[in-house]
Amino acid sequence: MALFVVIAIGIHLLRPDLDWVDAQMSRYLLQPYGGWLQLAYCTLAVAIVAIAFAVQRSLAPPARSSGPLLLFVAGAASLVVTAFAPMDGDGADATFVGWIHGVSAQAAFLCVTVAMLLQSAWLRHDARWRTSMPGALGIAAVAFAALWALVLVGGLPRGAAQKAVIAIIALWFVFIWTALRGRLRRGDAWVGDPP
Predict the structure, then answer these.
(1) Buried b or exposed e, range 136-148, using 16+ CB within 10 angstroms
(2) CB of 75 closer than 8 Å to CB of 51
(3) Cβ(151)–Cβ(95) under 8 Å?
(4) What's the pTM value of the predicted model, to 2 decimals?
(5) What is the model's pLDDT at position 189?
(6) Quick check: 37 and 83 in contact, CB under 8 A?
(7) How confident is the model at residue 195 (pLDDT cuts 50, 70, 90)?
(8) For 57-79, what is each residue's pLDDT tens digit?
(9) 29 burial level (CB within 10 Å; 0-12, 13-18, 19+)
(10) What is the pLDDT of residues 99-129, one digit of tens each?
(11) Cβ neighbours of residue 155 under 8 Å, at least 6 residues apart?
């Protein structure tokens, strides 16, 4: 997560030709320096999957659901496809690869935000995680609403609105990771099925 944030901020500094308020993250995937953002997307995908599996493993068996885990994996895979299928340039004819980029980017956002909502709701089934459920569910709900605002509300500055959604999603993962680390340090997390 930290590597993604550092690279994403750094790439904005390296591309003063793009207006960060209007330019979506996909514009930064194009050269120059697009390879760095591809690396950031891949590390973010790994972080999403790692945290999803860690949370799943830390929950008591009645609180586990394969739904959020599968959606996180699908979202992470879609993020990697987004990184390597370049979007169509401004004014260029539509291409199949550009279409793949758009569909995979939308799938990444939708899969991850729905997984966040579901995983947050499942936390209530584990007494050790129950206190984290309201915060996690609140952040997930804001991310989901912000995503739909990005899709449905015209006139928003596309770049800034998209980056706000990404920031809220990252906040959820930081919240969950912090809660998980605290539980592991206290020995207050399920670490596997009983023998």
Answers:
(1) bbebbebbbebbe
(2) no
(3) no
(4) 0.91
(5) 60
(6) yes
(7) very low
(8) 999 999 999 999 999 999 999 99
(9) buried
(10) 999 999 999 999 999 999 999 999 999 988 9
(11) none
| Distance, CA of 149 to CA of 170 (rounded, Å) | 18
What type of residue sits at position 76? A
Two structure tokens written together for 54: 């860690």
Q: What is the DSSP string of the chain?
A: -HHHHHHHHHHHHH-TTS-TTT--HHHHHSSSSHHHHHHHHHHHHHHHHHHHHHHHHHS-GGG--HHHHHHHHHHHHHHHHHHHSPPPPTTPPP-HHHHHHHHHHHHHHHHHHHHHHHHHHHGGGSTTTGGGHHHHHHHHHHHHHHHHHHHH-TTS-HHHHHHHHHHHHHHHHHHHHHHHHHHHHHT-S--S---
The CA-based dihedral angle spanning residues 119, 180, 43, 40, taken in that order and rounded to the nearest 10 degrees: 90
Exposure of 186 by Cβ count < 10 A (0-12 exposed, 13-18 middle, 19+ buried)?
exposed
User: Rounded distance, CA 170 to CA 178, Å?
Assistant: 12
Which has the closest alpha carbon to 14: 41, 35, 45, 43?
35
Among 67, 6, 72, residue whose Cα is nearest residue 36: 6
